User: Which sequence fits this backbone?
């Protein structure tokens, strides 16, 4: 029985990704603009989802975190994750990917702030981190709006690209603002 992982914000409903999101995920990754700072713009082939990725995204069902599909007014707009960090497995890592037609309205910030607050208040985490390519200005802007600060850089174990790492500690919760 999966552990519940459901969050609601002013505009978003987040709930654990399931097999039923396969088409949503393939369509999301078919937009080169969405994939620009992930794969250089290359879409993710459907078989990569069915072979490995979807299982990886469902892998935290026994935990109160993982990958969550995001819905606005019932429509899939992308996903967020809160999962063990690739930089430090004792820390939860925030991540997100939204459809291009959902950008520019503060949805990534809204979902991210809710997840960071959830990590501190409900999961009693002391630190949340995130990583991004240095050129991904929109993503880094979202991290800063969650109170995160630059802490360094490392080579991402998947993909082998250098990324910047941002962190926020529990005591910085006042930066999270309203959802
Ligand atoms: C990154 C992403 C999630 C942002 O989503 P979003 O809902 O548009 O983000 P928000 O509206 O909450 O906030 C974006 C902020 O970045 C700013 N921003 C956007 N593009 C920018 C750019 N090129 N340079 C600097 N700032 C930028 C916006 O102005 C906004 O800040 P503001 O509210 O102070 O004006 C979205 O662009 C996305 O899904 N991109 C593709 C996937 C991806 O790169 N994921 C992250 C991998 S690390």
Assistant:
């Amino acid at each position: 029985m999966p552990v519940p992982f459901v969050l609601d914000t002013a505009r978003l409903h987040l709930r654990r990704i399931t097999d039923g999101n396969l088409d949503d995920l393939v369509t999301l990754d078919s937009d080169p603009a969405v994939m620009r700072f992930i794969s250089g713009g290359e879409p993710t082939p459907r078989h990569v989802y069915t072979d490995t990725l979807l299982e990886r995204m469902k892998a935290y069902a026994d935990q109160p975190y993982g990958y969550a599909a995001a819905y606005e007014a019932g429509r899939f707009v992308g996903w967020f994750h809160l999962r063990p960090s690739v930089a430090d497995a004792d820390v939860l890592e925030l991540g997100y990917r939204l459809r291009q037609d959902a950008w520019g309205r503060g949805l990534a910030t809204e979902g991210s702030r809710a997840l960071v607050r959830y990590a501190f208040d409900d999961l009693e985490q002391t630190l949340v981190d995130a990583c991004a390519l240095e050129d991904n200005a929109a993503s880094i802007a979202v991290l800063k709006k969650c109170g995160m600060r630059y802490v360094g850089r490392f080579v991402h174990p998947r993909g082998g690209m250098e990324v910047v790492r941002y962190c926020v500690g529990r005591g910085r919760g006042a930066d999270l603002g309203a959802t």
About this structure: DSSP finds five helices and eight strands in the chain. The chain has a mean pLDDT of 95. Residues 34, 37, 96-98, 103-109, 132, 136-139, 141-142 surround coenzyme A (CB under 6 Å). The beta strands are 6-8, 12-16, 66-72, 75-84, 92-98, 127-132, 149-155, 162-169.
